[in-house]
Specification:
single chain; 242 residues; alpha/beta; 4-stranded parallel sheet; 10 strands
Length: 242
């Protein structure tokens, strides 16, 4: 969540941000259309306009642009404190990160011992990972000058990786395990997995990095994730030898 008042959209935006603006740095609303266009180009997820002394209403061209370009547009009254809204969003984001971490821990446990599924079935069901769904496991390792730098690379590109993982709508989770970045993908086609691998390689690729990816067969049931991980890990290891 960011508050941005400058019409020149700052470079620190990476994408996936929700932007608030009051218009305090401007006179009138002629700037708002170009502002929305710039935000869309940066990959933000929404624009919230604070209606008040600086922006009395959102001009029609801005509304039309946002509708035509899938940029969610909201207004809030001046009496609503932006700090209260941003606090609530940040609290939800932190809660979601804790949830993702818990889901990752569940899958790590299942990989080590498929019988432990009974301890995590309810949690994974709430996270919409069905027991009878099909799953594909992807294992990614990033090597730089002979050193495994997967964790550092994943942390640096964390938001970009999650945006890639979630962009196609398939239920997924992502976690570190035994030095590799592991993705578990639900009910995915071969074409979707090929696309995802290409996107992950593009996100993690740096001039000094070699990205090694292994992919399992698509297997049925949550218990199969352990077998899928073994397949993906073996394929990743073979790719490192090439």
């Amino acid at each position: 969540v960011h508050i941005v008042e400058d019409s020149e959209v700052p470079d620190f935006l990476h994408g996936n941000e929700l932007i608030f603006t009051t218009g305090i740095a401007h006179s009138g609303t002629d700037w708002l259309k170009d502002f929305a266009v710039s935000l869309k180009a940066k990959g933000v997820v929404g624009l919230v306009v604070n209606i008040g002394p600086y922006i009395e209403s959102v001009p029609s061209p801005v509304i039309v642009y946002c509708e035509q370009n899938d940029l969610p547009l909201f207004t809030i009254p001046w009496s609503t404190r932006i700090v209260d809204i941003s606090y609530d969003f940040c609290r939800r984001i932190i809660g979601n990160e804790k949830h993702e971490s818990t889901v990752g821990e569940a899958f790590r446990a299942i990989i080590k011992d498929p019988d432990s599924l009974k301890n995590y079935a309810e949690l994974l069901s709430r996270a919409e990972f069905g027991q009878k769904s099909s799953y594909t496991v992807i294992s990614v390792c990033v090597i730089s000058d002979g050193v495994n730098v997967t964790k550092q690379a994943a942390q640096t590109m964390d938001m970009s990786i999650w945006r890639t993982i979630r962009s196609s709508g398939h239920r997924s989770t992502l976690f570190m395990h035994e030095g590799s970045l592991v993705a578990v993908r639900q009910n995915s086609s071969e074409a979707d997995i090929s696309w995802l691998c290409a996107e992950l390689e593009a996100v993690l690729k740096e001039p000094a990095n070699v990205v090694c990816i292994g992919v399992s067969h698509t297997l049925d049931g949550l218990r199969s994730v352990s077998e899928g991980y073994e397949q993906a890990s073996a394929a990743q290891f073979m790719s490192m030898l090439e």
